[in-house]
Amino acid sequence: MFFLRMIARSFTRQLRRRLLIALTVCLSATVSVSMLGVVFDVGDKLNAELSTYGSNITVQPKADAVVSDLYNTEGVSGAASEADPTAFLKESDAVKIKTIFWAFNITNFAPQLNIHATTSPSGCSGSSCASVPVSVVGTWFNKSLKLPSGETTVVGVEGMRSWWKLEGAWPKDDSDQGVIGKTLADSIGAKVGDTITLHKKTASGENHEQNITLTGIYDSGDAENSSLYIPSSTAQVLADLPDSVDKIEVKALTTPENDLARKAAKNPAALSQDEWETWYCTAYPSSIAYQIEEVIPGAVAKQVRQVAALQGNVLQKTQAVMILMTVLSLIAAAVAVANLMVATIGERSAELALLKAIGATDGAVSRLMMAETAVISLLGAIVGAGLGSGVAQIIGQVVFGSGITMRPMVFVLVFVLLAVTVLVASASSIRSILSLKPAEVLHGR
Questions:
Q1: How many CB atoms lie within 10 A of CB 375?
Q2: Hey, which family's this protein in (predicted)?
Q3: CB under 8 A, 24+ apart: contacts of 103-107
Q4: Secondary structure element (H or E) that encloses residue 44, with its range
Q5: What are phi and psi of 182, to 5 degrees?
Q6: pTM (predicted TM-score)
Q7: Percent over 90 (pLDDT), the chain
Q8: Which residue in 78, 152, 245, 366 is deepest, having the highest Cβ count within 10 Å?
């Protein structure tokens, strides 16, 4: 009876250690699969998240931009200059942006006509009232476009200024409505629902007037608070500039730049054929900008350097953190498996010594232990892979509001890393088998 209890205790201890090895590998696989799954899918999601904070490509007439500055653009929204533009693009050409190779990466765009007009403070009338200069931005707010492919898309600043705090509502396109910046509204005493009159002297010397009903007051937190946004068609009538815009803001999902992208941004003609094909068929900001120039006559497209740099830096740091967590989990698994195997070998020393005593070689005993550990680890890895996929989906929903696409490469990579980890951990423990001397162990020495 005592002998049976000893066997039962030994079996229980061995089973517990095997379960601990399986659990260790399972936890490592869970962390590795979830982290690497997010790493391989986080690029588009981070770019989509960051692109809610403004455009990352601007399109201007060649007369207002230099081709050599393609890579060094500083994106500024709204009417930044005190003078009206003198070079224009056709507003009707803006829809061509959705016809480029990377059309599906273009998530939004909005043309702008930046002009200057004057108005009078609210409640003021007569010759004694001083005119107040107003920076007017004619644009699209929530415009539905029919694409050459027959599909329709909705674009405009309503989707590109999601961080604005808006009191009231957005204007309707092709109307006499507008939204006014908080700073400008305070300076002229305007409120939601008021109607202001804009006065504009055109390039031909004519004086135009336009009544604008304010549907909202926005707070952008920057210089745009001094602007008035109205439909582009209304601004074109006011300035006598039909079908004219001086800028197009574009929001695109892009791939972080690398040496190839930087080289192409300076001079695409300097690329070899293979480099050009790789660059053109990758969603770099510079390649998307280049393709926009191809479809819009007389345009120069430039990436907003700050936005592109921010996207690349955030992506690299996020990926680095997740990869570090994966490495640490693998190191922890290796240490745990090595310690558990040493303990297992110590408990089973009599069994292993007996095998060697009846003719088993060190290699055969080592392979036996390795095979047992491999089977246990494989079961833990399979369970961990399933749990890791679930954790990745939770991370995707909580952080990005959408699921994570698990690529087969993730599972292959994790299983290879775990196999190497377990092999290294086992190899360091197997050395104790080689030092077993059957005669001493079986005599209890």
A1: 12
A2: Belongs to the ABC-4 integral membrane protein family.
A3: 105/252, 105/253, 105/254, 105/283, 105/288, 106/250, 106/251, 106/252, 106/288, 107/48, 107/51, 107/251, 107/252, 107/253
A4: helix 2-50
A5: -60, -40
A6: 0.64
A7: 29
A8: 245
Contact present, 231 and 112 (Cβ < 8 Å):
no
Distance CA 46, CA 101 (A): 22
Residue 176, Cβ neighbours under 10 Å: how many? 15
Looking at this protein, which amino acid is placed at residue 423? L
Evaluate whether 406 touches 389 at the Cβ level (below 8 Å): yes
Give SS3 for 297: coil
Q: What is the per-residue pLDDT for 134?
A: 92
User: What are the DSSP E strand ranges found in 2-96?
Assistant: 57-61, 89-90
- DSSP annotation of 51: G
**Looking at 162-294, which runs of residues are DSSP E strands?**
165-168, 177-181, 195-201, 207-219, 227-231, 244-245, 247-252
> Between residues 306 and 271, which one has the greater pLDDT?
271
The residue assigned the tokens 């009338």 is: 125
Query: What is the rounded average pLDDT of the residues 314-324?
Result: 76
Residue type, 173: D
Does pLDDT of 7 surpass 50?
no
Residue with tokens 């908080």: 182
Give, for 114, the enclosing helix (H) or strand (E).
strand 106-119
- CA separation (Å) from 121 to 43, 79, 220, 257? 48, 20, 22, 48
Q: Which of residues 69 and 254 earns the better pLDDT score?
A: 254
pLDDT band at 369 (very low <50, low <70, confident <90, very high): confident
Question: At 201, phi and psi to the nearest 5?
Answer: -95, 120
What's the gap between Cα 84 and its chain centre? Answer: 36
- Give dist(CA 280, CA 267) in Å, integer: 13
pLDDT level of residue 362 (50, 70, 90 thresholds): low
362-395 vs 408-434: helix axis angle to the nearest 10? 150
Residue 105 has pLDDT above 60, yes or no: yes
Pair 161, 216: CB distance under 8 Å: no
Q: Give CA–CA dist 75/251, Å, rounded.
A: 12
300: helix, coil or strand? strand
